[in-house]
Amino acid sequence: MPLPRELSFKSGAKYTVGQAFSSYTSTEREQLRQLLVSPDIFVSVSASFCMKYLDIYTSDSYVYVLPSTEGNINVANQWHNSPLAFWQTQLNFATWCAATGCGVSVHDHLRGHYDFAPDSRNLSQLIFRFHVYYQTRKILRQISAPLPTDEAWNRYNNTYNHTAYQTVCNEFEGDPKSDWRLNRGTEWLARGPGSIFTRFGPKLQSYLRQSVSEAENGFVYSMLDQTKGFTHAGIERLNDSIRTYVWAILGSLLRVTSALRF
Fold first, then answer.
1. Other Cβ atoms closer than 10 A to 67
2. Which of 43, 53, 212, 219 reaches 20 to 30 Å from 30, CA-CA?
């Protein structure tokens, strides 16, 4: 019996670079974030416990959503000329690779119904959710992008390894010049001193601002809605995620067993 489309490799499968799907409501975006950072770990068909991962997506204190930068022409120019220097953009890129670039979708995997194997639905969803979170973290580490918990982190000018970024793009057959910015709910303008005159003299006109209601959890816009099949890179990354997940579970069981003995 052949595997269903959502669990199959699709030769030549190509997915849109950048924002993959833009019809999620703010509530749906928040729900998806919770699925990734607070997954239910199932130990049987029905029994589970909740795990908490480091929330790299949070918008607390404007970690993801960019605060308004009225009059700061340097930030506005950076958004135009070097957008990948922004933490938000780096997260969008890594999320796109882990989900869309692999052929892993919200409808088919993160929230899939798995009618062909209903008994394995919970475990399958858990593995795919782990995959998206784990590979996002791994790709951020590959390109040497500091996390919000790191001292070197900078929301506007976050360092990253350009060569490693190009290598990851090649793996997922993406153009390194692609636009990974969150354009939805974002306005920006960069004009230097003297661009507008008032009765008090020349005034600086520049800004970068985002609508919290539209931009919050905006990394979700980089996720695929429905899959056509896994990509070659997706198969490799999924195998890596499954191995890591199994080792993590076995390691946890070993620690619990050792504690019970003593």
1. 14
2. 43
- Whether 12 maps to a domain, the answer reads no
Distance, in Å, from the CA atom of 36 to the CA atom of 201, rounded to the nearest integer, reads: 51
Domains of the chain: total: 1
Residue 262 lies in a domain: no
Dist. CA 92–CA 16, nearest whole Å: 13
> How many other C-beta atoms lie within 10 A of the C-beta of residue 201?
8
Report the C-alpha gap between 230 and 11 in whole angstroms. Answer: 8
1 found inside a domain: no
pLDDT (tens digit, 9 = 90+) per residue, 204-258? 678 899 999 999 999 999 999 989 999 999 999 999 999 998 888 766 554 444 4
For residue 257, the model assigns a pLDDT of 42
The answer to whether the Cα torsion of 75, 80, 185, 71 is positive or negative is positive
Q: Please give the sequence-ordered ranges of beta strands (E in DSSP) within the chain, or none if there are none.
A: 40-42, 48-50, 186-198, 201-210
Other CB atoms within 10 Å distance of the CB of residue 237: 26
